[in-house]
Please model this.
Amino acid sequence: MRRQILKELCMHQGQFVSGKQLAEHSGISRVAVWKHIEALKAEGYYIQGVSGRGYRIEDLPNILIPEIIEKNLSTRIIGRKLQLFIEVDSTNQVARNLLRDNRAGEGAVIIARQQTGGRGRRGRSWESPVGGLWFSLISRPGLALPETALLSLVFAVAVSRALEKFVVSPVQIKWPNDVFINRKKVAGILLEMSGELEQAEYLISGIGINVNQNMIGLGSNKLKMATSLQIESGQQQDLNSVLAEVLNRLEQYYLCFLDNGFPSILAEFKDRCWHLGQNIKVEANNRVWQGRNIDIDESGSLLIDTGQKIERLTTGDIAVL
Ligand code: BT5
Model:
């Protein structure tokens, strides 16, 4: 019922909708409508109530409405089942719980307005306030684990391609899967999988995108190297449109990868990598390598020429020197 009221307010963006109309359309009393409105406000929605006029929703860009997202989807699999949560610890954890209970189908997407315990790679944390897109995609690509892991690079390309629609600057990638605009991180990807080496049982792809956070929202001191679509484009973006665009691109690249393999996407990956050809430092497994990043190969590995030999790395954190 609460979602129905929210949807009606969103459909009349910027206009007042009377309590009477909301009550009639939902089949409940006006007092019950008022109670739902109060609950929505407590969830963080900005709803203005003026006596004699009704209710009006503000700050529409930050409201996720599954029906609006679905309207903009051109996918067959990804996002056809969307589950929206107000607040969770981590959407990857919710996805894991759903899989444990056998309640998650292929292509299911779990989104949260905010996360209290958003996770990055290697135990790092991920800031996830209201205004960003925090979601996890469940899939079963039916590939061996090493091939499945390549999807983190594939998805970095898909997210970059999608975000390019909302900014003028190029959207670039830092290997293996960080998405950057003007050398600042706008999105991150965390892949979690389970299964046998020969075949992954399932894959949870957690994707976090900074959309409508400003410098303060990004916690300017804490995240000096972060940016958002709002900062880069100078305007707020509609979360529903951004998510739909991202899901459409994820499916496009996912299917291309399943049909043609990683080589079909590698050229675009390399084009978007701003550290290719540069001197870099890579930290992985408590070791540090330094040298020129000469290539990224068909297995998604990073090649660096250290001066003594060519090192081939499968994981690590890059800093450009
Ligand atoms: C990542 O880790 O970049 C993966 C982030 C994945 C987040 C999504 S949100 C939905 C799903 N549910 C989850 O719980 N997670 C996924 P990593 O490469 O380890 O980067 C983490 C580092 O990025 C942190 O140590 C910070 O320095 C920085 N960071 C944290 N929050 C950020 C933000 N919102 N924007 C940019 N940088 C951030």
The pocket of biotinyl-5-AMP is lined by residues 90-92, 115, 118-122, 124, 126-128, 134-136, 178, 185, 188-190, 206-208, 210, 223, 226 (CB under 6 Å). The mean pLDDT is 92. Residues 239-260 form the longest helix (22 residues). The radius of gyration is 21 Å.
